[in-house]
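step 3/5: co-fold with DLZ
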Amino acid sequence: MTEIAPDSNGEGLRVCIVVAEWNAFVTHKLLEGAKSGLRENGVQSDDITIAWVPGSFEVPAATRWSAESGRFDAVIALGTVIKGETDHYEHIASQAAAGIMETSQATGVPVVFGVLTCETPEQALDRAGGTQGNKGEEAATAAIQMARLRQRLA
Ligand code: DLZ
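step 4/5: write C-alpha cells
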C-alpha cells in the first residue's frame, strides 16, 4: 500500500494569488492570511504573484490565465460575495465556483477556492481573520498541499 500524506512544505513553489477588489474590507484580510500562510510554509516572497481583479466574477478568467502561463505550481482564488437584495449573489457565487473548478480541471494546475459566500458582512469578517479563522490562510495551505500532491502523482 502507498499512502501520500499531506505535505505543506512550500519551499521552491511558485504561487499566484488572484484576489477580487469588491468587498475589499474583507478581501484585503483574506490576502494577508494567504500571504502569511504561504510564507510560514516556506514559499519565498519573490515566488508569490498577486493579481487584482475587479470582482469575484472576474476571478475565474485570471486564474485561467495564470494557470495556463506555466509559471505557477498553484493558484489561490480569493473573493467575497455577500448576499444583497437581488439574485446577483447566486450568479456571481456559482459562476466563480464553476469557473475556478473548470480552470483546475482543464489545466491540471491546482486552483484553490478561497471565495467567501456569506449572508452578511459580519459572517465574512468572521472568516477573514475573525472568530472562524482566516480562509485565505487555509487556502494557502491547501494550495501547497495540492501542488505537492500533483508532483507526487503526476
Ligand atoms: C456587481 C457585484 C455585486 C452586486 N456583488 C458582488 C459581490 O458581493 N462580490 C464580488 O466579488 N463582486 C460583486 N459584484 C461585482 C462582480 O463580481 C463583477 O466585478 C461585476 O459584475 C463586473 O463584471
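step 5/5: annotate
Residues 20, 22-23, 54-58, 79-82, 84, 88, 92 surround DLZ (CB under 6 Å).
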